[in-house]
Design goal:
Belongs to the ABC transporter superfamily. The chain is of the alpha+beta class and 370 residues long. The protein is built from eight helices and 20 strands. The strands form four sheets. A six-stranded mixed beta sheet has the order 6-7-8-3-9-10, sandwiched between helices. It binds adenosine-5'-triphosphate (ATP).
């Protein structure tokens, strides 16, 4: 197991800088997820750690040793790819044992290693099959088995579940998590799927345009996103943003702001100036929606702290609840309502934005204020 240090690592292709001075310290046994939109550079970073891409500048250090110039096979890291990358002409057993045979391990040791890995992954009955006779999920399991038997210092996962259907992805995600609990091997996992990031990671590294935007536990990124990018990327449906400005008449203890909708209370500790522009974020699941007056429920007495009226634009039932799209002024926002939602487009509803659930961001730099 390994501690991996990425120190000021840069990557350029031709003259285009893809990664800009990335710093990241990964602790022994940690499960790190690199997440970000397509093209942000997460796969490139993983491939540099694996030795499949040259490092333009900076150092990659594993357990205190700089490995920039070490050949991939000498790094003792195992990579699992989205495309499985199995040898089609070899059986499952052949694929799993290949790297050990290459390293001239004794037969009994190889048999023990692949026996154990196939038990863990539920592949025992499939050992003589070839990849084309396996389902996508089974193929990915073989790829995982091939990585496990090498007992690497770390696993590098490059979007391993992207080719699987939703149900299988959910199942394999849980298996990867159990596998990590069992083996405790340092893991770096690349995905653009924020649910995978949230469920698997000890710490998430959120990337955008070649830079790290935030490093933290899933709860850190969800509860206290450092900026608008992270706030908008983590969470589904995504966080709502309301453009707001501090009212010029500021009451004593807490000031009010006027957004595209209801007035809200801003914590005094933010130190916002009268007239200052801010962006207020609120997650759909934190908005309380209810019938409009006179059948108003759940919002009584809360007016002035972010309650107001809105018009339903669309209701998407999800089974567990419904995503309620509503219009405040001209802007459409989304609320996640647990339980039945019988509203129709055009209905008037009340929306309440609980003060303690609000996120505040600078209107110019997008940085978190609270
Ligand atoms: N060999 C290459 N030559 C030139 N540009 C490249 C090369 N490999 C990657 N890039 C570019 O580097 C950027 C980052 O690519 P990378 O694959 O790391 O992104 P990513 O975040 O993993 O995206 P995805 O989720 O789509 O795989 C992209 O703009 C890509 O086009």
């Amino acid at each position: 197991m390994a501690e991996i240090d990425i120190r000021h690592v840069r990557k350029s292709f031709q003259n285009l800088e893809i990664l800009k001075a990335v710093d990241l310290s990964i602790r022994t046994g940690e499960f790190i997820v690199l997440v970000g939109p397509s093209g942000c550079g997460k796969s490139t970073l993983l491939r540099m750690i694996a030795g499949l891409e040259e490092v333009t500048a900076g150092d990659i250090v594993i357990d205190g040793k700089r490995i920039n110039d070490l050949a991939p096979r000498d790094r003792n890291l195992a990579m699992v790819f989205q495309s499985y990358a199995l040898y089609p002409h070899m059986t499952v057993a052949g694929n799993m044992s290949y790297s050990l045979r290459l390293r001239k391990f004794a037969q009994d040791r190889i048999a023990a290693a692949i026996g154990e890995a196939s038990r863990v992954l539920g592949l025992t009955a499939l050992m003589e099959r070839r990849p084309r006779a396996l389902s996508g999920g089974q193929r990915q399991r073989v790829a995982m088995g091939r990585a496990i038997v090498r007992e690497p210092q770390a696993f590098l996962w490059d979007e391993p579940l992207s080719n699987l259907d939703a149900r299988l992805r959910e199942q394999m995600r849980a298996e990867i998590k159990k596998l990590h609990r069992r083996l405790g091997t340092t893991s770096i996992y690349v995905t653009h799927d924020q649910i995978e990031a949230m469920t698997l990671a000890d710490r998430i590294v959120a990337m955008d345009a070649g830079t790290i935007q935030q490093i933290g536990t899933p709860a850190d990124l969800y509860d206290r996103p450092a900026n608008l990018f992270v706030a908008g990327f983590i969470g589904s449906p995504a966080m709502n943003f309301l453009h707001a400005r501090m009212a010029s008449e500021t009451p004593t203890r807490s000031a009010l702001i006027l957004a595209d909708g209801p007035r809200m209370t801003v914590p005094e500790t933010l130190g916002l100036q009268a007239g200052q522009a801010v962006i207020v974020g609120i997650r759909p699941e934190h908005i309380v929606v209810g019938d409009a007056a006179p059948r108003q429920t759940g919002v009584a007495g809360k007016t002035g702290t972010g309650a107001g009226e809105a018009i339903v634009d669309l209701v998407e039932p999800t089974g567990m609840g419904a995503i309620v799209h509503f219009r405040l002024d001209t802007v459409v926002h989304k609320a996640y309502h647990l339980g039945r939602a019988d509203w129709k487009a055009g209905d008037h509803i009340t929306v309440h934005f609980p003060t303690e659930r609000l996120h505040f961001f600078g209107a110019t730099d997008g940085r978190r204020l609270n």
